[in-house]
Amino acid sequence: MNLLKKCSSCFRKKTDGASTSTSRQLSDPTTDFKGQPRLPTFAVPKRYDIQLKPDLAACKFEGIVSIVVDIVADTRFIVLNAAAQLHINSDSVYFSDPNSNKVFEKPKVGNVEADEILVLEFSDTLPKGMGVLTIGFEGVLNDKMKGFYISTYDHNGEKKNMAVTQFEPAYARQCFPCWDEPSFKAKFNITLLNVPSELVTLSNMPVDEEEMNGNLKTVYYQESPVMSTYLVAVVIGLFDCIEDHTPDGTKVRVYSQVGKANQGKFALHVALQTLGFYKDYFQMPYSLPKLDMVAIPDFATGAMENYGLVTYRETDLLFDDHHSAAANKQRVATVVAHELAHQWLGNLVTMEWWTDLWLKEGFATWMSYMAKDKLFPEWKIWTQFFDHESSEGLRLDGLAEPHPIEVEVNHASEIDEIFDTISYKKGASIIQMLKGYVGGPHFQNSLATYIKRHAWSNASTNDLWAVLKEECNEPTMDKIMNSWTKQKGYPILSVKMKNQTLEIKQWIIPITYCCGDYDSLISLLMEKKSETYDIKDLLSNITDPARSWIKLNVEQIGFFRVKYDDGLAAKLRYAIEHKCLSVTDRLGILDDSFALCMAREMSLTSLLTFMAAYREELEHTVLSNLIKIIDKIERIVADARPELMNYIKQFFIGLLLHAAANFGWDPKQGEGHLDAMSRGDIFTALAVLGHEETINEANSRFNTFLNDRNTPLLHPDIRKAAYVAVMQKVTSSNKAGLESLLKVYRETDLGQEKTRILGSLASCPDESVVYEALNFALSSEVRKQDAVFGLAVSKEGREVAWKWLKVIKPTPLHNTLALDRVLLV
Ligand code: BES
Ligand code: ZN
Fold first, then answer.
1. Which listed residue, 174, 248, 554, 700, has the most CB atoms within 10 A of its CB?
2. Three-state SS for 721?
């Protein structure tokens, strides 16, 4: 039974116009607690009873929280979090001791705004053991997509508000006073008061009881198991939903805007299958009675794994059979599988502190590949892992700014910025390397043991190494892994062939190599800075020149780069041309070569010669990487050697034409998911390179589409290419193409269509059009969350974009995780 159940009348009226501190001025209760990175632990929360009364029309809320607190040391103080945005009604604060029925009223209330803490100083020492702290508060439903916020939507032509929470990493304190750190796990009883009865209300747990009061309702939710504050969630608005259940009875629902329920079908399918897969893999079932997934129109990141109530931006949850592309489908599966992995890794077992953020983000990223591979084997998702995760991780880790995976976090304000490529992509990549080293079954068992051992509790990186040490009988596990998680950067393996021995230099790393074929795979742990390996025997079997290659880091399992001497590189090129290497190895060699070229370890001419070996490439991932590299080189050459631009463009067009002819503009019967994605990528790249035939064909198909939005001539997979092609023809004196695109943008209600258009507008070579496109991205027609997609500027537009960026009022860019996908500059 909720502690405060049915006592909505106990909302106290504000009596005094409301200062947050009382008038006693003798001492400042906050002095001892300022500037501390973590909350003190002499009082520990066990259970929260939270009553929230939101007013969606007035964009505000009030509430009362009663927290069962374990006082573990003699103290007159209770220190917890409350953000400056939250108004604490000082008169409402009291502490009661259930044993003696004594009430400790009106503590001195101090708050340290910079640290977002509330310091309550009582005149008597609080008794050790359980007590109840009660606090009344008020706040604003903000428009910043964090804390307790308002998202807007259109319903039958009317603009409506919904109320949504986003508490990770440290915004629960904007909604109710709490111990807002991941290690203070507690149970939550949530009550929503006075909500218009036609609205859907959701929280982490199923409804316990609902009371109607005229056209308002009060909804009581069941008590949650112990969880961290950043995972608490509430959603209130109008939605349609579809539902199903797992074989063991977990109810799964997908909520979308009214009228879009069908678009939730794909995510529902993925969720059901994924829950089953994770249950088997982790050897532990999903831990709550229900799972809701909700599409929110205004959403700062891609999605948020709130326990039992996962929230998503619409484009990452909904899929429209007629207008979404293959790439959209893969994104939905990725995000759903990622958030569901968190239900175990993050929600059930939580990182001790944000330093170990990678433990949940790296793992959820990696696990999503396991799930996708199981659900959609035809996606060959592991071949995409290197391109999407490791390649990006290595690129960022090679720059000056990054941090080690385990990163020191001393203040709440530092947490947001570590949700980055290092935590996610380098994190996922070293997990993949570790799994490669210890082997799949050992790795899975270790993970299952880790989850069992730390369920409903917290864990740190060392706890994971401890389990792996035991399960894999690997006493030096932490020594091996520390070099990857505690220092930044990665090694470059420099390989030379000398008298039939391989000479390799670098850190302590698990390496693999093979010579001439994949049966000759050698795996070893390289422990010295420099080693030589005798490979006479391996080489003696080889007579065919196409088999005289040596590939290190087989299947790109290790998180490092490899630099070959000229002779070895030439043999690899020959092997690529003769189709002897696997997809991931072709991709890895290309990616390493580009990185080495950027680091001036390889000449541009050598790189281009190498790229020519990929002329007949048709594999999606390799093409996708090739296109990324083409785009980057084009931008570099445009600045450094403009006189070579034409030659380079023709060279690159030549590299892509074989694939373009192979895929064609129209879907082929029975073709795979990867070919569908490649088609769009190839034509987009050709349009950007100014390939006239592509631009003309795309424009003609687009014109047909303008008259018939369902024409088969503009399949969703090629729309982005067509839009980019349309923008190549737009100039300041002829903006017809831009206007047509904006018309489509305004008419569609599909988020993915809007994003496709927004991502094409600034690809125009005309500077003044780029300027106009950038301003559009910040206009009221674009939700703040999507502005970031409008920054994909053409190489010709970079100068003007930079000037624009310097003068715009620094509007915070949301969804910065997506920046990697947007900015290829
Ligand atoms: N926990 C994050 C969401 C988040 C990110 C909260 C940053 C607060 C700050 C969530 O699990 C996540 O990682 N989402 C990704 C999804 C992706 C990697 C599949 C996102 O939002 O892009
Ligand atoms: Zn995540």
1. 174
2. helix
Residues contacting 756, CB < 8 A, separation 6+: 325, 719, 720, 723
Q: Is the dihedral of CA 567, 570, 576, 577 positive or negative?
A: negative
Residue 755 burial (CB < 10 Å; 0-12/13-18/19+)? buried
List pLDDT tens digits, range 60-101: 999 999 999 999 999 999 999 999 999 999 999 999 999 999
H, E, C per residue of 444-507: HHHHHHHHHHHCCEEECHHHHHHHHHHHHCCCCHHHHHHHHHCCCCCCEEEEEEECCEEEEECC
Among protein residues, the one with the nearest Cα to ligand 1's atom 22 is 302
Q: What are phi and psi of 323, to 5 degrees?
A: -125, 0
Specify the amino acid at residue 538: L
- Give 448 Cα–ligand 2 centroid separation in angstroms: 19
Provide the residue ranges of all domains of the chain, joining segments of one domain with +.
2-237, 240-482, 491-558+560-614
Query: Do 567 and 367 form a contact (C-beta atoms < 8 A)?
Result: no
Residue 802, SS3? helix
Close Cβ partners of 244 (under 8 Å, ≥ 6 residues apart): 252, 268, 272
More confident residue, 310 or 106: 310
Same CATH fold assignment for domains 2-237 and 240-482: no
Domain 240-482 has CATH 1.25.40.390: no
What is the maximum alpha-carbon separation in the chain? Answer: 92
Q: State the CATH class of domain 491-558+560-614.
A: mainly beta
Q: Convert 496-533 to b/e letters by CB count within 10 Å (16 or more is b).
A: bbeeeebebbbbbbbbbbbbbeeebeeeeebeeeeeee
In CATH terms, 2-237 corresponds, of 1.20.1050.10, 3.30.420.250, 2.60.40.1730, 2.40.10.10, to: 2.60.40.1730
Question: Token pair for residue 232?
Answer: 């608490």
pLDDT higher than threshold 90 for residue 17: no
Q: What ligand 1 atom has the least distance to the C-alpha of 361?
A: 13
Q: Sheet containing 108-112: which strands, arranged edge to edge?
A: 75-81, 117-126, 108-112
Residue found by looking up tokens 């998911």 in the block = 673
Yes or no: say if 149 and 163 are a contact pair by the CB < 8 Å rule: yes
Closest atom of ligand 1 to 302 CA is 21
The pLDDT value recorded for residue 811 is 65
Question: Among candidates 293, 52, 297, 300, which has minimal Cα distance to 193?
Answer: 52
- Average pLDDT along the chain: 93
Q: Ligand 1: which of 164, 174, 419, 421 to mutate, judged by most atoms within 8 Å of the beta carbon?
A: 419
- In the residue annotation, 116 being an active-site residue is answered as no
Q: What is the pLDDT of residue 506?
A: 73
pTM, two decimals, is: 0.94
